[in-house]
Amino acid sequence: MSRKQETVRVTIVGFGYVGRGVAEVIKRKHDAIARKHGIDLTIVGIADLYGSIVNENGLSEEEIMNLRTGKNLKDISSRDVIKEVEHEVMVEATPTNVDNGEPGLTHVLTALESDRHVVTSNKGPIALEYKRVTELAAKRGKELRFEASVGGAMPIISLVRENLAGNGIISIEGILNGTCNYILTRMAEEKLPYEHVLKEAQGLGIAEADPSKDIEGIDTAVKLVILANSIFDMNTAYKEVEVTGITEITPEALKLADDEGYVIKLIGEVDRDGSLKVAPRLVPKGNPLNVGGTLNVATIKTDLAGEITVIGKGAGPIEAASAILSDIIGIYT
Ligand SMILES: NC(=O)c1ccc[n+]([C@@H]2O[C@H](COP(=O)([O-])OP(=O)(O)OC[C@H]3O[C@@H](n4cnc5c(N)ncnc54)[C@H](OP(=O)(O)O)[C@@H]3O)[C@@H](O)[C@H]2O)c1
Question: Is 119's C-beta closer than 6 angstroms to any atom of ligand 1?
Answer without folding.
Answer: no
